[in-house]
Design a protein that fits this description.
With about 220 residues, this protein is an alpha/beta fold. The chain is about 30% helix and about 40% strand. It is built from seven helices and twelve strands. The strands form two sheets. The protein has a six-stranded antiparallel barrel. A five-stranded parallel sheet has the order 2-1-3-4-5, with helices on both faces. A hairpin with a 2-residue loop joins strand 8 and strand 9.
Amino acid sequence: MHKLLILETLKPFIEEEGSLLSRKNIKVLTASSGEEILKVHRAEHVNLIITELKMPDMDGDKLCSVVRNDEALQKVSLIIICENDKSDIERCEACGVNAFLTKPVNTEELFSKIRKFLYVLDRKDMRAFYHEDVKCKSGDNIFFAKADNISSSGILIRTDQVLEKGDEVSCSFYIEGHPVTVNGKISRVQKKPPGTYCYGVQFVKITILTQARIDKFIEHY
């Protein structure tokens, strides 16, 4: 279980990315002040703290100093949000924080850092083992393959059919009992003896419903 502790005033920023924070292996906690952040962290031993540099009771750089000098608290990553001015930036650089962002906050950059410090893969990079039959069609050629794994953006298949990188291929298979067909192209080719080929198929045309079913399968894997 990954635990994220965030200052309440910053919570609206992370609510923009509900799909990441709704995952079962991420617990989001909030606190209203620096002192409360310390209290929650002592009780929960969180993995990541996101706070502001300037707070009424304890500034973020002071909070960072307290955490870094306490053996019971120091095993945590910290991100500080500050104003885009020289003095604030220098304070963040000097306090030992893992990362800092200036206002206005770039939410894409913020979530990139959240994934980094929580060791959470972006959904497009998540793969689930999927050993099922796949009916494929490339041009007029229809053949069957065996899937090895699946991600939100593609599927890895094995077959004795010879295909080239860039070839278009449609793949029909079942996801939790639902038949789906996805159009894709060969993005990776690997030959495996005897006479077997592994192909990475990148999805290029997929319905919203099919995408949702694949995402749900991967997330619950």
